TrEMBL record:
<dbReference type="InterPro" id="IPR011330">
    <property type="entry name" value="Glyco_hydro/deAcase_b/a-brl"/>
</dbReference>
<dbReference type="Pfam" id="PF01522">
    <property type="entry name" value="Polysacc_deac_1"/>
</dbReference>
<protein>
    <submittedName>
        <fullName>Polysaccharide deacetylase</fullName>
    </submittedName>
</protein>
<dbReference type="InterPro" id="IPR002509">
    <property type="entry name" value="NODB_dom"/>
</dbReference>
<dbReference type="GO" id="GO:0005975">
    <property type="term" value="P:carbohydrate metabolic process"/>
</dbReference>
<dbReference type="GO" id="GO:0016810">
    <property type="term" value="F:hydrolase activity, acting on carbon-nitrogen (but not peptide) bonds"/>
</dbReference>
Length: 306
């Protein structure tokens, strides 16, 4: 696999602006244009639905399924199921003992709409944990595309995690896919180093700015003689026009500007450019589940029955 550049595009199908609004305008209005772009470009990807998003938007799930793209899971209500990396007001992480129930319930809700059990998962904000990975293993998930490379900075390629520590290699069947980050640049964010992360550079600075990071990462990985796997995360709400602030309930929420900057047509245009630039490099595009099968076969991984 070292000879190819492998790309996994994942869309986190959730409420608009993450947990900061109760609306699903992105899921309702951006699914069809994104699927159409994938069809036109001849690529496939994975759409990770919260259980609530799937239940409230069955037509979106059906469209993704019929298009040949993968439907995965993204928690129940976009809650923090894993280890919190930084605090968000009003967003309280689940207790570890709550995690198995919530993931099982999320899986059931997506399965009810999809007609089959999803096998790929991504945690909201890439905040996974050992409890999450063990719960996914119990439910026969194939992929957890949650590892934030920018934060842990240890895993550069997919791996099978340990049941004692999800950030370490072990013998679990599930494949952990790290999300791409620029591991060459000098971070200006001590501790968290979130500026290494790829998101949302494609729309705030443009596809070409993101490709500079991609090119740097490819060179870095090839010098190490490691396979190049680029796992990206996006959100449907990035591809519709957003308000600068939202009022609902008893408050007004004003997201930081980077969350809403250039959402809508600009994001869709830059996303198309990003696909073309990656195709120019000869990249192969995969659904998360299909990539896991390819990876396991290439590495002669024998999956034990659970």
């Amino acid at each position: 696999m070292n000879d190819k550049i492998h790309v996994i595009f994942g869309f986190d199908m959730e409420t608009d602006v993450g947990s900061f609004t109760p609306y699903y305008d992105g899921v309702k209005n951006a699914t069809a244009p994104l699927v159409e772009m994938f069809d036109n470009k001849g690529i496939k990807g994975t759409f990770f639905y919260t259980g609530d998003a799937a239940r409230r938007n069955p037509e979106s799930v059906e469209l993704v399924k019929l298009s040949g793209n993968e439907v995965g899971t993204h928690s129940l209500f976009h809650e923090t199921v894993g280890d919190q990396l930084f605090p968000i007001p009003g967003v309280v992480p689940l207790l570890p003992e709550e995690v198995p129930f919530r993931i099982r319930k999320a899986t059931e809700w997506v399965e009810e709409v999809l007609g089959e059990q999803p096998v790929s998962f991504r945690c909201p904000r890439l905040w996974s944990s050992t409890a999450v990975v063990n719960a996914l293993e119990e439910l026969n998930y194939v992929v957890d595309a949650s590892y934030p490379m920018y934060f842990y900075r240890e895993r550069l390629v997919p791996y099978h995690p340990s049941e004692q520590d999800w950030t370490k290699e072990g013998n679990l069947n599930i494949l952990q896919i790290p999300n791409f980050a620029d591991m060459v640049m000098k971070s200006k964010d001590p501790g968290l180093e979130r500026d290494r992360d790829q998101w949302p550079l494609f729309r705030t600075k443009g596809a070409n700015a993101l490709m500079k990071r991609v090119d740097s990462f490819i060179k870095f990985m090839r010098q190490k003689e490691l396979p190049v796997v680029l796992c990206f995360y996006f959100h449907p709400w990035e591809f519709i026009p957003l308000e600068k602030s939202y009022h609902f309930g008893e408050c007004r929420v004003t997201p930081d500007r980077f969350l809403t900057l250039n959402c809508g047509d600009k994001a869709m245009s830059e996303f198309g450019i990003l696909i073309d630039r990656l195709k120019d490099l000869g990249a192969e595009f995969h659904r998360a589940d299909e990539f896991a099968s390819l990876w396991n076969k290439a590495h002669d991984v024998q999956i034990a029955s659970v």
